[in-house]
Amino acid sequence: MQISKRIKSLSRSQTVEITNLARQLRQDGIDVISLSVGEPDFTTPKEVIDYASLMAEQGKTKYVATDGLPEFKQRIQEKMKRDNGLDYELNEIFVGAGAKQVLYNLFMALLDPGDEVVVPDPYWVSYTEQVKLAEGVPVIAHTTADTAYKLTPEILDEVVTEKTKILVLNSPNNPTGSVYTLEELQALADYLDDKDIMVIADEIYEVLVYDGEHISLASISETMKKNTIVINGVSKSHAMTGWRVGYACGDSEVISAITKLQSQLVSNVSTPAQYAAVRAYDMDHTFLEEYNQLFKKRRDNAYQKMVELPYVTCIKPEGAFYLFPYFKETAEKCGFNTVDDFVKAILSEKHVALVPGSAFGYPDNLRLSYAVDEDTLNEAMDRLKSFIKEKLENTRK
């Protein structure tokens, strides 16, 4: 069987591959600690599971509207107004099988062959590959630690051309944990004001902000609201990664287009899963506050241990649940040619799974997820420290 050129050219998700490898090693009896996975380490709240089960028992297992269960769309509408100061009509809201699928639908609906999509680096692994699948051209806007890996109008201006169709903006950011301030978003909005560029604002980590506050780019002005599609979901906020429920809010014409595509793909997102999301959005906000404080404590612990490692520099993440340290010098001092080689070696020798920065377009860094319990995190950091110490001693002999 001849596989299509489209799929042959597609890169595998390195985060998924490393997580699967760690899982396989565990099944083989090896004590692997995975700091590679991008999901909360605890179970979906019981009341969410119970409600989904109840709805299924009551027969809520049939097809529903392609663009989403009306009850869930109403909850999204209420949430966007309450938390983000944004008013959307129900025909401006779309529910997909996770934020990842919503993004893919958007690229497929908005891009013609050759259209350019600006993606600031470091970037989540699927942005560029999805753009290519839609026959678009990903254009990387290079950011640095000097701006906390955040896009500025000056950086953006260097890559925008007459072919630019979309800008992808992720805040809080995966993999850096950076969060855009009001002033930074205003500067980008001012630059984009007279440009015919659609912004896809990926806000899936919205509730995980520890310093400052989350602000939606779409809330900056009416122009930005019109030209921005906001992406969000319940995966990260309510520990529901496996339920696969995400959504988009924005221009009704765009929502109609991705709904048309959805009708030919999966018809609708799992009905019980959408009822679970309804219950998640009905939960007391105390859950989210406790959840946020737990991850803030983990962030502080992981960051402090990371910056104590030799030759490592790292910005302090303001959100999400990742560290993205510069590791090139450490890797080289330990005798490795690349950070990728370092990551492979520590998995093999110390059984700690990390993700090389090359997966995010930034090969001199690596990503560490602190979405694990405190004991596991401490053990992983001890192994990392021990591994570096051993390698440094060996290179000095």
UniProtKB/TrEMBL annotation:
Q: What is its EC number?
A: 2.6.1.-
- Domain Aminotransferase class I/classII large: start-end pairs: 31-384
Task: Give the cofactors, semicolon-separated.
Answer: pyridoxal 5'-phosphate
Give the UniProt record's GO annotations in the biological process aspect. Answer: amino acid metabolic process
Which GO molecular function entries does the Swiss-Prot or TrEMBL record give?
A: pyridoxal phosphate binding; transaminase activity
Q: Which top EC class applies here?
A: transferase
- Taxonomically, which superkingdom? Bacteria
What the entry lists under InterPro entries is as follows: Aminotransferase_I/II_large, AspAT/PAT-like, NHTrfase_class1_PyrdxlP-BS, PyrdxlP-dep_Trfase, PyrdxlP-dep_Trfase_major, PyrdxlP-dep_Trfase_small
Q: Which UniProt keywords apply?
A: Aminotransferase, Pyridoxal phosphate, Transferase
User: In which family does this protein belong, per the annotation?
Assistant: Belongs to the class-I pyridoxal-phosphate-dependent aminotransferase family.
Q: What is this protein identified as?
A: Aminotransferase
Q: Which organism is it from?
A: Phocicoccus schoeneichii
